[in-house]
């Protein structure tokens, strides 16, 4: 009988949204999916930027699959977290299992060497974990092992430096205590953002892999709380909810994509992160989910223009917990979950498989941020005559890191008044 290898993916989401565009190089319309010429870490950047187009392809394909599984519901996940964890798992995979994992992550193995993939992820994790001032972003991985199972030295020698892996002994024969130990570890690493990730651990479990991403950013320019007022959000033709709607007047980076159609607003955090807010025309969300890819984002980035508008954006919190094995199956990662799995590079024993993949994410959006230097002149009444863009129906949110051009988070906010967790 196959030994159970219970793998968990988790991440924490945003704490405070920030105001802006696709920072630094992206302020000049640079594509978030293309290499960045202004990185402070040229050697690291060269390696990790090789992964950019593949990681972007994986991110948008995953969004499409999640949207099919969860139509008309809130979605929030971290593609870079999932990609990084499965790349680390590929270190211990062999034969077809390894090929399926890497190709499922959107890598063409005739165009990129496996060692380039791992070196790229190593530098990606390192650069994301040392961002510039203004953004807090921590990534890490941990393996919880039963004492009777000893990982191969080679696997540890490779995984620890490449993926900042920590190895912790755990007694899975006592599931209640094991769950508490793992959940406490994850809660601490995500500063209390992700709690109770692991539930109902099988006593037969011999290994659990946890991956975490924690991100907190401040707006370059905070929304003023006194401007937040309750307004209507149109979930669908039959459902309208009241939500606290934040408000700012000023110049924003905009693009109106007539092909979809949709409206794109680009916003900035202090530091190295940027967000695209994408508001599809009524009835066009499914088309947007089906067609969104890195080429589309490049088109938006290349065609943004500044315009004075009144921006209305909801204040909300959402979270989601997903069992994503089925989605990964559809993306070609199959054998690792079956008795055909070959993970012998981890422990040296063949009877090892992944039994479950859990991915949990949370997102808070509010007014908080650090005010940038600004004019002290009073508001000019003419500003209020600027056209308004109101995110008062379902929209997408894409969060990028500027130094690595990585897609950190993707979300669909279908109903900002809903905070319940979804289970795929």
From TrEMBL:
Q: Which SMART domains match?
A: SERPIN
Q: Which InterPro entries match?
A: Serpin_CS, Serpin_dom, Serpin_fam, Serpin_sf, Serpin_sf_1, Serpin_sf_2
Q: Does the keyword Signal apply?
A: yes
Keywords, in A-Z order: Glycoprotein, Protease inhibitor, Serine protease inhibitor, Signal
Q: Looking at the record's lineage, which domain of life comes first?
A: Eukaryota
Give the protein family.
Belongs to the serpin family.
- SUPFAM superfamilies, per this entry? Serpins
Q: Which GO terms describe its molecular function?
A: serine-type endopeptidase inhibitor activity
Question: Where is the Serpin domain positioned along the sequence?
Answer: 60-416
Residues of the signal peptide = 1-20
> What cellular component terms from Gene Ontology apply here?
extracellular space
- The name under which this protein is listed is Serpin domain-containing protein
User: Species name for this entry?
Assistant: Meleagris gallopavo (Wild turkey)
